């Protein structure tokens, strides 16, 4: 199980950080209101722009930081001698085999430290999310896609199917459980399932369909 890829100490740290996201959201909301930001009592999922949504946005970024912390704080993370630094447990789109692992402190000033994880996420926000026009993301199955006329019936695919090479749905569970633990109250629809949905994933995995022929037909 994925839980076996973390030591008891690492699990304790990740559970603690994940559970503190809710507390951070509440404190952020109180500080935002005290600073004069109006609160419309609408959450992010409901399209809010006030103190509630602001605090939940902060919680979302914290959850991204925890995902990075899980990547570096697992028993698959190794050491890069030439850089004298940690290597994440998932340097590519797979969980690598590791005969030994490196473990850093989540409170240290290194790649495995939570503050460093937060700083990396902050850099993304400052550079990639600096536009004034808010963006919107929607999740739905490509087999039942429908688009409003304003989009012009265009389909933007961010990642193609990988046939039988990469099972992203299975791989995503490694991080999904931590994100869900932090954000399931903010995005109840997105995190309604305990694990990542897999039956509709467009990959030809024989183990999922019973045989190679059935997988290719799917």
Mean pLDDT: 87
Largest sheet: 2 strands, antiparallel
- Let me know the number of strands: 2
Structural class: mainly alpha
C-alpha end-to-end distance: 27 Å
Helix and strand element order: HHEEHHHH
User: What strand order characterises the main sheet?
Assistant: 1-2
Give the fraction of residues assigned to helices: 40-55%
Q: Treating each run of at least 4 consecutive H or I residues as one helix, how many helices?
A: 6
Instruction: Return Rg in Å.
Output: 20 Å
Low-confidence stretches: none
State which percent range the strand residues make up: under 5%
Gross morphology is globular
Quaternary form: single chain
Provide an overview of this structure:
The chain is 41% helix and 3% strand. The chain is an all-alpha fold and 218 residues long. It is built from six helices and two strands; from the N terminus they run ααββαααα. Strands 1-2 form a two-stranded antiparallel ribbon. The two termini are 27 Å apart. A hairpin with a 4-residue loop joins strand 1 and strand 2. It has helices at residues 8-34, 51-72, 114-128, 168-183, 206-209, 212-217, and strands at 78-80, 85-87. Helix 2 crosses helix 3 (114-128) and helix 2 (51-72) crosses helix 4 (168-183).
């Amino acid at each position: 199980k994925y839980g076996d890829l973390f030591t008891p100490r690492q699990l304790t740290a990740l559970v603690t950080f994940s559970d503190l996201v809710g507390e951070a959201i509440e404190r952020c909301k109180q500080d935002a209101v005290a600073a004069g930001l109006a609160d419309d009592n609408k959450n992010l999922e409901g399209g809010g722009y006030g103190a509630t949504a602001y605090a939940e946005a902060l919680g979302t970024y914290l959850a991204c930081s925890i995902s990075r912390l899980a990547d570096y704080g697992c028993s698959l993370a190794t050491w890069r001698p030439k850089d004298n630094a940690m290597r994440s447990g998932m340097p590519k789109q797979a969980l690598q085999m590791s005969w030994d692992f490196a473990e850093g402190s989540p409170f240290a000033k290194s790649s495995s430290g939570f503050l460093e994880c937060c700083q990396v996420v902050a850099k993304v926000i400052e550079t990639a999310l600096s536009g004034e026009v808010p963006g919107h993301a929607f999740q739905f199955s490509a087999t039942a896609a429908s688009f409003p006329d304003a989009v012009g019936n265009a389909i933007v695919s961010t990642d193609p199917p990988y046939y039988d090479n990469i099972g992203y749905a299975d791989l995503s569970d490694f991080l999904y459980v931590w994100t869900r633990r932090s954000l399931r109250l903010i995005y109840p629809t997105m995190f309604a399932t305990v694990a990542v949905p897999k039956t509709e994933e467009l990959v030809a995995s024989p183990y999922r369909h019973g045989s190679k022929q059935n997988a290719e037909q799917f």
